[in-house]
Amino acid sequence: MHPPIRIRILASGSQGNAAIVSLRPRDGAPTHLIIDLGLSPRKLCGALEVENIKAHEIAAILVTHADADHVHGGWGRNWPFKSAKVIARNAHHRAIANAGIDAKHMLDAESDSQAFFPHIKPFALPHDKAGSTGFRISTDGVAMGWATDLGRMSSDALAFFAGVDALCIESNYDARMQQHSSRPDFLKDRIMGGHGHLSNVQALQAALHIHKTKALSHVVLLHLSSQCNSPDLVQELWDTHAPELAGDMQVAMQMLPLPWLCVGQPRQCAWSESLFVALR
Ligand SMILES: [Zn+2]
Predict the structure, then answer these.
(1) Which residue of 9, 27, 98, 127 could cross-link 19, Cys pair, CB 3.0 to 4.6 Å?
(2) Ligand 1: distance of its center to the CA of 26 in Å?
(3) Distance, CA 126 to ligand 1 centroid (Å)?
(4) pLDDT at residue 124 greater than cutoff 60
(5) What is the per-residue pLDDT for 26?
Protein backbone atom coordinates (compact mmCIF):
# COMPACT_ATOMS: atom_id res chain seq x y z
CA MET A 1 0.00 0.00 0.00
CA HIS A 2 1.22 3.46 -0.83
CA PRO A 3 2.09 5.39 2.34
CA PRO A 4 -0.14 8.43 3.02
CA ILE A 5 2.89 10.70 3.55
CA ARG A 6 6.36 10.41 2.07
CA ILE A 7 9.20 12.87 2.63
CA ARG A 8 12.32 13.40 0.58
CA ILE A 9 14.89 15.80 1.97
CA LEU A 10 16.93 17.19 -0.89
CA ALA A 11 19.34 19.43 0.99
CA SER A 12 19.72 20.69 4.54
CA GLY A 13 22.15 23.20 5.98
CA SER A 14 23.24 26.81 5.82
CA GLN A 15 23.91 26.56 2.07
CA GLY A 16 20.33 25.71 1.19
CA ASN A 17 17.28 23.81 2.40
CA ALA A 18 14.51 22.06 0.48
CA ALA A 19 12.34 18.97 0.82
CA ILE A 20 9.48 17.35 -1.08
CA VAL A 21 6.46 15.94 0.75
CA SER A 22 4.07 13.71 -1.18
CA LEU A 23 0.61 13.13 0.24
CA ARG A 24 -1.61 10.34 -0.95
CA PRO A 25 -4.83 10.37 1.06
CA ARG A 26 -7.18 7.39 0.74
CA ASP A 27 -10.06 9.51 -0.55
CA GLY A 28 -8.48 12.16 -2.65
CA ALA A 29 -5.94 12.98 -5.30
CA PRO A 30 -2.23 12.81 -4.49
CA THR A 31 -0.68 16.17 -3.76
CA HIS A 32 2.88 17.34 -3.53
CA LEU A 33 4.32 19.98 -1.24
CA ILE A 34 7.70 21.61 -1.01
CA ILE A 35 9.19 22.77 2.27
CA ASP A 36 11.53 25.73 1.77
CA LEU A 37 12.95 27.06 -1.48
CA GLY A 38 16.59 27.25 -0.41
CA LEU A 39 17.88 25.53 -3.56
CA SER A 40 18.23 27.27 -6.92
CA PRO A 41 15.38 26.81 -9.44
CA ARG A 42 17.72 24.71 -11.60
CA LYS A 43 18.51 22.26 -8.80
CA LEU A 44 15.04 22.00 -7.30
CA CYS A 45 13.26 21.72 -10.66
CA GLY A 46 15.86 19.14 -11.73
CA ALA A 47 15.11 17.12 -8.61
CA LEU A 48 11.34 17.31 -9.25
CA GLU A 49 11.90 16.12 -12.80
CA VAL A 50 13.86 13.11 -11.58
CA GLU A 51 11.00 12.29 -9.21
CA ASN A 52 8.53 12.65 -12.05
CA ILE A 53 6.71 15.50 -10.33
CA LYS A 54 5.63 18.36 -12.59
CA ALA A 55 5.98 21.88 -11.22
CA HIS A 56 2.27 22.52 -11.78
CA GLU A 57 1.48 19.51 -9.54
CA ILE A 58 2.95 21.25 -6.50
CA ALA A 59 -0.03 22.33 -4.40
CA ALA A 60 1.78 24.33 -1.76
CA ILE A 61 5.19 25.55 -0.76
CA LEU A 62 5.73 25.84 2.98
CA VAL A 63 8.28 28.47 3.91
CA THR A 64 9.74 28.31 7.40
CA HIS A 65 11.25 31.80 7.15
CA ALA A 66 12.85 34.04 4.57
CA ASP A 67 16.60 33.70 5.21
CA ALA A 68 18.55 33.11 1.99
CA ASP A 69 19.23 29.46 2.83
CA HIS A 70 15.45 28.90 2.89
CA VAL A 71 14.38 31.21 0.05
CA HIS A 72 16.93 31.27 -2.77
CA GLY A 73 17.18 34.59 -4.59
CA GLY A 74 16.67 33.02 -8.02
CA TRP A 75 12.95 32.23 -7.68
CA GLY A 76 11.79 35.74 -8.52
CA ARG A 77 12.89 35.28 -12.13
CA ASN A 78 11.72 31.66 -12.40
CA TRP A 79 8.33 30.80 -11.01
CA PRO A 80 7.23 27.45 -12.42
CA PHE A 81 4.70 26.59 -9.67
CA LYS A 82 1.63 27.88 -11.46
CA SER A 83 -0.93 26.30 -9.09
CA ALA A 84 1.01 26.47 -5.84
CA LYS A 85 0.32 28.65 -2.86
CA VAL A 86 3.23 29.81 -0.75
CA ILE A 87 2.27 29.18 2.87
CA ALA A 88 4.15 31.37 5.30
CA ARG A 89 3.25 33.42 8.33
CA ASN A 90 2.39 37.05 7.64
CA ALA A 91 5.53 38.10 9.49
CA HIS A 92 7.61 36.65 6.62
CA HIS A 93 5.59 37.76 3.61
CA ARG A 94 7.45 41.00 3.01
CA ALA A 95 10.88 39.36 3.21
CA ILE A 96 9.74 36.59 0.84
CA ALA A 97 8.47 39.25 -1.57
CA ASN A 98 11.82 41.03 -1.25
CA ALA A 99 13.45 37.80 -2.44
CA GLY A 100 11.43 38.26 -5.64
CA ILE A 101 8.42 35.99 -5.09
CA ASP A 102 5.16 37.65 -6.04
CA ALA A 103 2.89 38.34 -3.04
CA LYS A 104 -0.12 37.09 -5.03
CA HIS A 105 1.10 33.51 -4.50
CA MET A 106 1.20 33.84 -0.69
CA LEU A 107 -1.24 32.73 1.98
CA ASP A 108 -0.94 33.45 5.67
CA ALA A 109 -0.14 30.15 7.36
CA GLU A 110 -2.14 31.11 10.44
CA SER A 111 -5.37 32.28 8.88
CA ASP A 112 -6.20 32.04 5.17
CA SER A 113 -4.26 28.85 4.36
CA GLN A 114 -6.31 26.81 6.84
CA ALA A 115 -9.39 26.92 4.59
CA PHE A 116 -7.43 25.42 1.66
CA PHE A 117 -4.99 23.21 3.55
CA PRO A 118 -6.58 22.16 6.85
CA HIS A 119 -4.09 19.27 7.12
CA ILE A 120 -1.16 21.72 7.36
CA LYS A 121 -0.84 23.43 10.74
CA PRO A 122 1.73 26.13 11.49
CA PHE A 123 3.44 26.97 14.76
CA ALA A 124 5.52 30.09 15.47
CA LEU A 125 9.04 29.24 16.65
CA PRO A 126 11.69 31.55 18.13
CA HIS A 127 14.40 32.49 15.61
CA ASP A 128 16.00 35.92 15.24
CA LYS A 129 13.64 38.87 14.96
CA ALA A 130 10.86 37.51 12.75
CA GLY A 131 10.88 33.93 14.11
CA SER A 132 10.41 30.83 12.00
CA THR A 133 7.44 28.55 11.39
CA GLY A 134 7.17 24.89 12.28
CA PHE A 135 4.65 22.74 10.45
CA ARG A 136 2.59 19.68 11.28
CA ILE A 137 1.23 17.84 8.25
CA SER A 138 -1.24 15.02 8.69
CA THR A 139 -3.46 12.77 6.63
CA ASP A 140 -5.14 9.38 7.11
CA GLY A 141 -3.98 8.97 10.69
CA VAL A 142 -0.28 9.70 10.14
CA ALA A 143 1.51 12.96 10.83
CA MET A 144 4.90 14.53 10.41
CA GLY A 145 6.45 17.52 12.12
CA TRP A 146 8.98 20.00 10.73
CA ALA A 147 10.95 22.33 12.96
CA THR A 148 14.09 24.06 11.79
CA ASP A 149 15.92 27.25 12.66
CA LEU A 150 14.63 27.65 16.19
CA GLY A 151 16.31 28.71 19.38
CA ARG A 152 14.46 26.36 21.71
CA MET A 153 11.54 23.97 22.00
CA SER A 154 8.98 25.37 24.43
CA SER A 155 6.45 23.14 26.15
CA ASP A 156 3.83 24.56 23.76
CA ALA A 157 5.97 23.55 20.78
CA LEU A 158 6.41 20.05 22.23
CA ALA A 159 2.64 19.81 22.68
CA PHE A 160 2.13 20.96 19.07
CA PHE A 161 4.34 18.14 17.76
CA ALA A 162 3.07 15.48 20.19
CA GLY A 163 1.84 12.34 18.44
CA VAL A 164 3.62 12.81 15.10
CA ASP A 165 5.02 9.68 13.44
CA ALA A 166 8.01 11.40 11.87
CA LEU A 167 9.92 14.32 13.30
CA CYS A 168 12.25 16.44 11.19
CA ILE A 169 14.04 18.71 13.62
CA GLU A 170 17.06 20.97 13.57
CA SER A 171 20.18 19.66 15.33
CA ASN A 172 22.47 22.54 14.48
CA TYR A 173 25.47 22.43 16.76
CA ASP A 174 27.44 20.66 19.42
CA ALA A 175 27.58 23.08 22.34
CA ARG A 176 31.23 22.36 23.09
CA MET A 177 32.33 22.84 19.49
CA GLN A 178 30.33 26.07 19.37
CA GLN A 179 31.89 27.41 22.53
CA HIS A 180 35.42 26.53 21.38
CA SER A 181 34.95 27.77 17.83
CA SER A 182 36.69 30.88 16.51
CA ARG A 183 33.33 32.57 16.01
CA PRO A 184 32.86 35.99 17.63
CA ASP A 185 31.01 36.05 20.95
CA PHE A 186 28.03 37.96 19.58
CA LEU A 187 27.46 35.20 17.03
CA LYS A 188 27.77 32.44 19.63
CA ASP A 189 25.28 34.35 21.80
CA ARG A 190 22.89 34.73 18.88
CA ILE A 191 23.02 31.03 18.06
CA MET A 192 22.83 29.70 21.63
CA GLY A 193 20.68 32.41 23.23
CA GLY A 194 17.25 30.85 22.71
CA HIS A 195 16.46 32.71 19.47
CA GLY A 196 19.05 31.14 17.21
CA HIS A 197 19.47 27.46 16.56
CA LEU A 198 18.82 24.16 18.31
CA SER A 199 21.75 22.18 19.71
CA ASN A 200 22.21 18.43 19.38
CA VAL A 201 21.16 17.88 22.98
CA GLN A 202 18.08 20.09 22.63
CA ALA A 203 17.02 18.19 19.51
CA LEU A 204 17.58 14.85 21.25
CA GLN A 205 15.55 15.91 24.30
CA ALA A 206 12.70 17.15 22.12
CA ALA A 207 12.65 13.94 20.08
CA LEU A 208 12.64 11.75 23.20
CA HIS A 209 9.78 13.79 24.64
CA ILE A 210 7.73 13.47 21.45
CA HIS A 211 8.60 9.77 21.11
CA LYS A 212 6.92 9.20 24.49
CA THR A 213 3.65 10.57 23.10
CA LYS A 214 3.77 8.15 20.13
CA ALA A 215 6.57 5.94 18.84
CA LEU A 216 8.43 7.80 16.09
CA SER A 217 8.99 5.90 12.85
CA HIS A 218 11.61 8.42 11.73
CA VAL A 219 13.68 11.20 13.19
CA VAL A 220 15.54 13.36 10.70
CA LEU A 221 18.07 15.79 12.05
CA LEU A 222 18.21 18.94 9.96
CA HIS A 223 20.56 21.84 9.38
CA LEU A 224 23.79 20.52 10.95
CA SER A 225 26.44 23.22 11.14
CA SER A 226 29.46 22.39 9.01
CA GLN A 227 31.70 24.27 11.44
CA CYS A 228 30.33 23.29 14.85
CA ASN A 229 28.93 19.79 14.39
CA SER A 230 29.65 16.39 12.93
CA PRO A 231 27.35 13.49 11.98
CA ASP A 232 29.62 11.08 13.89
CA LEU A 233 29.26 13.09 17.07
CA VAL A 234 25.49 13.17 16.63
CA GLN A 235 25.34 9.42 16.06
CA GLU A 236 27.39 8.80 19.18
CA LEU A 237 25.09 11.04 21.23
CA TRP A 238 22.02 9.19 20.02
CA ASP A 239 23.58 5.73 20.41
CA THR A 240 24.41 6.61 24.02
CA HIS A 241 21.30 8.49 25.13
CA ALA A 242 18.53 7.26 22.83
CA PRO A 243 19.47 3.74 21.71
CA GLU A 244 15.78 2.94 21.18
CA LEU A 245 15.56 5.70 18.57
CA ALA A 246 19.08 5.79 17.15
CA GLY A 247 18.28 3.18 14.48
CA ASP A 248 15.40 5.28 13.15
CA MET A 249 17.40 8.52 13.22
CA GLN A 250 19.01 9.95 10.12
CA VAL A 251 21.10 13.02 9.57
CA ALA A 252 20.09 15.19 6.62
CA MET A 253 23.07 16.40 4.61
CA GLN A 254 23.85 19.51 2.66
CA MET A 255 25.05 17.85 -0.52
CA LEU A 256 23.39 14.43 -0.35
CA PRO A 257 19.61 13.87 -0.51
CA LEU A 258 18.08 11.33 1.85
CA PRO A 259 16.00 8.46 0.47
CA TRP A 260 12.22 8.83 0.50
CA LEU A 261 10.93 8.23 4.01
CA CYS A 262 7.51 6.64 4.44
CA VAL A 263 5.96 8.30 7.47
CA GLY A 264 4.72 5.75 9.98
CA GLN A 265 6.64 2.95 8.25
CA PRO A 266 10.20 2.60 9.53
CA ARG A 267 11.34 0.83 6.37
CA GLN A 268 12.77 3.26 3.84
CA CYS A 269 11.04 3.80 0.52
CA ALA A 270 12.77 3.22 -2.79
CA TRP A 271 14.91 5.96 -4.21
CA SER A 272 16.51 6.98 -7.45
CA GLU A 273 20.23 7.31 -8.02
CA SER A 274 19.67 9.88 -10.75
CA LEU A 275 18.64 12.47 -8.17
CA PHE A 276 22.27 12.93 -7.26
CA VAL A 277 22.95 14.09 -10.79
CA ALA A 278 20.11 16.64 -10.69
CA LEU A 279 21.36 18.22 -7.50
CA ARG A 280 24.96 18.59 -8.57
ZN1 LIG B 1 18.72 28.21 7.99
Answers:
(1) 9
(2) 34
(3) 13
(4) yes
(5) 87
